[in-house]
Write a structure and sequence with these properties.
The chain is built from three helices and no strands. It is mainly α and 104 residues long.
Length: 104
């Protein structure tokens, strides 16, 4: 084999036949599992029944970066809140509710 020069095999970026066949089979199985709603129905059901793995899948398909408007750049704010709660307090209504992002 010539060093530094590719002399054979498939072109760069072309999936091998086994990978393509497996991907096709997985998509067909998911489509059938979704009944009338197809693949979208199956994925919707998985998002509800298995949110952890579904979020991992979602992380794989979302864009890796967010592009903002250069004229109006995005601002990221980090807030750390430390609350001391008496473990003997059994009155759950008196405990503070989990705060939403942006709330005090």
């Amino acid at each position: 084999m010539a060093q530094g020069a590719k002399t054979g095999g498939r072109q760069r970026g072309t999936p091998n036949k086994t990978t393509a066949a497996l991907k096709d089979a997985i998509l067909k199985a998911a489509d059938k599992a979704g009944d009338e709603a197809g693949l979208v129905g199956y994925l919707t059901r998985q998002a509800t029944l298995n949110p952890g793995p579904f979020m991992g899948l979602l992380g794989k398909v979302l864009p890796m970066t967010l592009a903002g408007d250069p004229e109006n750049p995005m601002e990221m704010i980090h807030k750390i809140v430390r609350e001391v709660i008496d473990p003997q307090d059994t009155d759950r209504e008196s405990l503070p509710a989990a705060s939403e992002p942006g709330s005090v």
